[in-house]
Amino acid sequence: MKVLTIIVFVVLLLVNLLAGVIIKEYLTENIIMSSCILLLNAILLWLVANSKMRDAFKVSYHILFPFICITEIILAIIAPNKWEDNFFVIGIVCCVAFQFILLFAAIKTTQHNTQYD
What we know:
By secondary structure, the protein is mostly helical. It contains 4 helices and no strands. Helices cover about 85% and strands about 0% of the residues.
């Protein structure tokens, strides 16, 4: 599962970069944002797979995080190419923060539960 996740994200990253080369309206800022989102989500799913959290969290996050990643990529693709007053970037940052909070909460919950088992 770990290797499959990495392979899927590498393929998606290559498709994203190829789309950036082919599509004229796909701006450089959008390519960079969506590529960073793909890399960050690959790292997050790798951390989920390699962490010592309960299997229920791992399965749930392997289902939930790709949906959040799709949302982030859609926001990155349609975002305007300015950084100030850009609510799409704020939405992406909120989604990433939500993912980190979920990951941290699952790790802490598992540590707490294994301490009392």
